[in-house]
Amino acid sequence: MPELKLLHVGHAPAVLAFELANRSYFAASIPDRGDDFFDQFTNRYDASLAEQEAGICAFYVLVAEDGSVLGRFNLYDLENGTARLGYRVAERVAGRGVATTAVRELCRTATARHGLRTLRAATSHDNAASQKVLTKTGFVPVGPATPADLGGKSGTWYERDLQP
Question: Tens digits of per-residue pLDDT, 47-66?
Fold first, then answer.
């Protein structure tokens, strides 16, 4: 059974392998990270861990039993009980409910571990899979997302109140 784990330094090789293996798959629905992301991976990874340590963000990986990364589920800009949610799952598990299950778990974790009350997520109009995940996990549309929010595409902001 895959496990959602807080990102740590030891996940770096598996995260890089995940990003490389799924690069073209991701680029079909979200902006490509670009060669610089991969060229500077170690520095960016270390910076992410520093942001996490500072309490600005919380990064999670969905780890398979064999240690490979099946997905990334991130909470950005933790402030005043609110954060932005971003996620991506490997092509080999897409369409199997993996993202939905992990987002549900992260919503519980966001409250229990990080004291969050509200999560926001933006998705482009042409990313039907992400819209479906957000809707299934209790997010509701709250307004338009601009190309600046979504790397050049328009879309919708979704929000979920985490209070019981």
Answer: 999 999 999 999 999 999 99
**Dihedral sign, Cα of residue 102, residue 105, residue 106, residue 107:** positive
pLDDT in tens, 66-83: 999 999 999 999 999 999
Residues of the chain with pLDDT under 50: none
Nearest alpha carbon to residue 19 among 69, 94, 92: 69
Q: Is 46 helix (H, G, I), strand (E, B) or coil?
A: helix
Long-range contacts formed by 22-28: CB under 8 A, 24+ apart: 22/88, 22/90, 22/91, 25/90, 25/91, 25/94, 26/88
Q: Of 119, 87, 66, 80, nearest to 22 (Cα)?
A: 87
What is the residue whose two structure tokens read 């949610």? 85
Which strands, in side-by-side order, build the sheet including 58-63? 3-6, 58-63, 69-79, 82-89, 118-124, 155-161, 140-145
Residue 80 falls in which region: left (phi positive, over 0), alpha (psi -120 to 50) or beta: left
